[in-house]
């Protein structure tokens, strides 16, 4: 496809394409922008991760081949890339220490940098190495995030957190929800699930999806399920992989739930599982947006979520579109699951709400950000 000189050349910078929600959201954004005629580079510090094989041919993958020490290596490699390619705008995500703004300054190029903040940074710093690097990171964010030309937050809660950390007015931080509903995702929801638990006549399946790490607090979901199981027949399936697998398996054995809880690992197509589940449950301590909540909503599946910072309460509009329960409260989570199994919200209502998070709608909002950064009234792209 030919590109006119006035069409901005855009880059999306990520550490890698691991199987997380932030990576998936940024890949969907890149796809949406490429579909509007933009030339897109997907710039990776390391070319690894579960989503590598899903990158369409319309997007060029650039491998920075970063090595240890990773922070220094990827920043210097990104500087070289910016000097050689000089994209109009660089979108940077999962870039906690702001390699993108450093690289842009070192490169001395006119590329505009947009920091896309995908998580509640304060919560992440408290959760990860709180007594060492976690204490330094807020100071670094305060110093270097203001160097960006724009900041986009994945939820209002994330925007407020960034404003507190940096001293930047929240009015100048743009909130754009993640683009999680795509035609490909909707098509995958129609595929069958090859698992006996989803056969006709089987007990309802409660589904959790996410990395098996402390942030997701799946032990609370397992404990809540144990309460549910005492009151009715049901099953729990958690899709994902991570460092907490052994701990979860031990908890499941201790509760005697081996026959009713499954941990199948990472699923290439979690969306089909969402479409076939009776309830989707999110037990996280914190999120940035909560992609899986919006994805389950697009599948028409009833939702119970912790009212964690930030994102799920915004997706569910304060409980209008699903149950919200306190963080780390197994009894409340169990109560929410039982109530939802008894009286789920209508699937068509949920699907309609999920259109707010469609890739087309979100791409329009990012194009508006681009038009402001490039000083054009409107971006005319095919």
Automatic annotation (TrEMBL):
GO terms for molecular function: glycosyltransferase activity. Keywords: Transferase. InterPro entries: Glyco_trans_1 (IPR001296), Glyco_trans_4-like_N (IPR028098). Residues 201-356 form the Glycosyl transferase family domain. Pfam families: Glyco_transf_4, Glycos_transf_1. Gene3D superfamilies: Glycogen Phosphorylase B. Residues 20-180 form the Glycosyltransferase subfamily 4-like N-terminal domain. PANTHER family: GLYCOSYLTRANSFERASE. This is Glycosyl transferase. It comes from Stenomitos frigidus ULC18.
């Amino acid at each position: 496809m030919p590109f006119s000189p006035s069409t901005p050349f855009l880059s999306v910078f990520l550490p890698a394409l691991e199987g997380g929600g932030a990576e998936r959201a940024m890949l969907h954004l890149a796809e949406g922008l490429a579909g509007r005629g933009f030339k897109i580079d997907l710039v990776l510090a390391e070319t690894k991760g579960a989503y590598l094989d899903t990158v369409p041919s319309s997007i060029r993958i650039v491998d920075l081949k970063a090595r240890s020490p990773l922070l220094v290596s990827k920043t210097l490699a990104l500087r070289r890339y910016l000097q050689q390619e000089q994209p109009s705008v660089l979108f940077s995500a999962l870039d906690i220490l702001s390699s993108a703004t450093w690289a842009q300054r070192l490169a001395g190029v006119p590329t505009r940098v947009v920091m896309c903040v995908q998580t509640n940074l304060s919560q992440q710093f408290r959760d990860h190495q709180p007594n060492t690097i976690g204490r330094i990171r807020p100071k670094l964010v305060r110093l270097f995030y203001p160097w960006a030309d724009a900041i986009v937050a994945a939820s209002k809660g994330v925007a407020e957190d960034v404003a507190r950390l940096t001293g930047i007015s929240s009015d100048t931080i743009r909130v754009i929800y993640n683009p999680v509903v795509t035609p490909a995702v909707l098509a995958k929801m129609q595929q069958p699930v090859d698992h006996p638990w989803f056969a006709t006549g089987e007990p309802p399946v409660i589904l959790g999806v996410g990395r098996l790490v402390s942030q997701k607090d799946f032990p609370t979901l397992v404990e809540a399920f144990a309460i549910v199981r005492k009151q009715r027949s049901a099953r729990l399936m958690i899709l994902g992989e991570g460092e907490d697998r052994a701990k979860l398996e031990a908890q499941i054995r201790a509760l005697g739930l081996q026959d009713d809880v499954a941990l199948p690992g990472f699923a290439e197509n979690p969306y089909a599982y969402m479409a076939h589940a009776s309830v989707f449950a999110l037990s996280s301590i914190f999120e940035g947006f909560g992609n899986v909540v919006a994805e389950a909503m697009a599948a028409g599946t009833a939702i119970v979520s912790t009212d964690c910072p930030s994102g799920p309460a915004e997706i569910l509009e304060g409980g209008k579109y699903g149950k919200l329960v306190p963080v780390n409260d197994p009894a409340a989570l169990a109560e929410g699951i039982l109530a939802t199994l008894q009286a789920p919200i209508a699937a068509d209502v949920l699907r309609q709400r999920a259109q707010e998070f469609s890739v087309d709608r979100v791409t329009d909002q990012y194009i508006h950000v681009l038009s402001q950064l490039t000083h054009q009234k409107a971006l005319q792209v095919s």
